[in-house]
């Protein structure tokens, strides 16, 4: 992306030679991304990230179709807020965070757009998109089916997801790209009101000067992620298993939130008894172990997890939630250190409280 | 020492943090998220958290935000609402200090390995023969010892008030010298969860049902009018009680929730020689005898003799007749030099 932050700074929407060079970079990025998703280049809309993609899918489709917007209770706020803000239907999930298919079938008839995430960002649960798609198509054939696949690229083949849905969101910084750029894939024929109007870029679907550097970087990041995925997944899964097993063995009162067969390889999520996440995260940070528990509010404070609440996890347990993510760069030494630090920190907190 | 500095986003706590750093302490800044709703009073809004964070960055210290909204609801907001329902005039800022800053926060600080919690209050902690007391801040006009009067020994041992020895103008001067963005920020005056445009009426109106009351004359009991919400009436109030203009000045001298009656009368009826104080806490040991008593955040103190009551409370005998204190307000006892807090409680 660096050349596009330096001397290749032209706006791809122009007509001169420098613009053409920038334009080609964007076009090539589009083709590359389309190939990795299994969609047509014309079905790619570049956005500013996952939030914009989700907002466009939900609010953009709802603006041109009659009916309610529907999503499960475990969705990311970028989807959930669109649904609750439009008095839409929020569907219950089971204890693993997967949407109840029966409840979904009851909620979707007459819907304008139904959104079900491919992978949950907090607890890592993988959605059976084929099953969800079958239910939605049968119960609400006219509804647009969208999936927030922001957490998917490192773990799943997007080509396996795309056939089941009409729209799909991606965010570059979740697969090694820069922040501030993403994709909304829109199946040919699916109409929506654009969120941004103006110069008419992206075939009138998303106006605004292209983030050339971001788009080029995103395409490359997706290419590399796809290339490494098959080998990475088992390696990372093994590290994750060792991490969680180490915590379960070394600390009393640790509960693995979702069983491993239901979730992606890089997600480690536990709830620790008699511990408050805020305190835990502070002490972990002091020991250079950077983790999270739930989302932050606008002020920067931790909010209780709506995902855990939707899964039926009681507050007394979810207040000790801990999310650790593993990725390409995670090593055995990292796992060892994490187990060591966590064990010590939990003991310290329990001793003093 | 490792100190957890409570940053409100105001100039006092900003400078307090700087003072701690100057004294060589290891400082971590923290803003408590207490009220999740609308706020425009200059304490606790998102804009204030941003100010706190930027000040922390300017001073080179870490900044954390802790979510204590549950405790705030339980210990400050819900009791505030309940008090109005029951006919008391609560002081939520005092309850916030009692339960949130000098309990929830200090407990968390202890848990995380801090040696002390610091706030930007204009107050001091003094040691007299090995016993600690809250004392008035150097700037008498800005003294906030009244709102932090409740600290027991356990808290006093792990609390710091870094700007207690500075005047307000010295605080602003230090802030300006340091280039802190909060140097000219106005002080927050009001309750953080009551907005300026909505006011108490809007806040309470959505949480309790107001009951109207008759307004009657203290002398002859005749009807003078009515008020829409007896819960909003305070002892000593003169305006907003539905009286027509003209005639002698009348003040609220009695509020009866059982009969839905507000009695108004001459100011002299607000005078009293004594009062009872409940829920009394002491800095050290219970005190009897001559003390100075302060009944509002910026009020003057008056001389009184206090003694213990049979129910565990305190009876205050004023040396000169004083204005009656609205039930629910905090009452703080100072030593006769009017410097040290000996204890305090709630007016009955």
Q: DSSP strand (E) fraction of chain A?
A: 5-15%
The helical percent of chain A reads 40-55%
The structure class of chain A reads: alpha/beta
The ordered H/E elements of chain A are HHEHEHEHEHEHEEHEEHHHEH
Most extensive interface, chain pair and sizes: A-B, 15 and 16 residues
Please tell me about this protein's structure.
The complex is a heterodimer of chains A (353) and B (348). Chain A is 42% helix and 12% strand. Chain A is α/β, with parallel strands linked by helices. A 7-stranded mixed beta sheet of chain A has the order 1-7-6-5-4-2-3, with helices on both faces. In chain A, α6 links the parallel β4 and β5 (144-148). Chain A is globular. The termini of chain A are far apart. Chain B has 348 residues and is an alpha/beta fold. Chain B has 7 helices and 17 strands. Chain B has a 6-stranded antiparallel beta barrel. In chain B, 45% of the residues are buried. Chains A and B meet through α9 of A and α2, β3 and α4 of B.
Please tag this protein with its features.
heterodimer, A: 353 residues, alpha/beta, globular, B: 348 residues, 5-stranded parallel sheet, 7 helices, 24% helix
Question: What is the structure about, briefly put?
Answer:
The complex is a heterodimer of chains A (353) and B (348). With 353 residues, chain A is an alpha/beta fold.
Give the secondary structure arrangement, pairings included:
The complex is a heterodimer of chains A (about 350) and B (about 350).
Chain A: H1 2-5, H2 17-37, E1 44-47, H3 50-62, E2 69-72, H4 77-85, E3 89-91, H5 101-107, E4 113-115, H6 129-139, E5 144-148, H7 158-161, E6 167-171, E7 182-186, H8 212-250, E8 254-256, E9 267-272, H9 277-286, H10 306-310, H11 315-318, E10 321-325, H12 332-352
Parallel strand pairs in A: 2-3, 2-4, 4-5, 5-6
Antiparallel strand pairs in A: 1-7, 6-7, 8-9, 9-10
Chain B: E1 2-6, H1 11-22, E2 26-33, H2 46-59, E3 62-67, H3 69-86, H4 92-111, E4 116-118, E5 123-128, E6 131-136, H5 153-156, E7 159-160, H6 168-177, H7 199-205, E8 213-217, E9 223-227, E10 251-256, E11 261-265, E12 271-282, E13 289-294, E14 301-308, E15 314-323, E16 330-334, E17 341-347
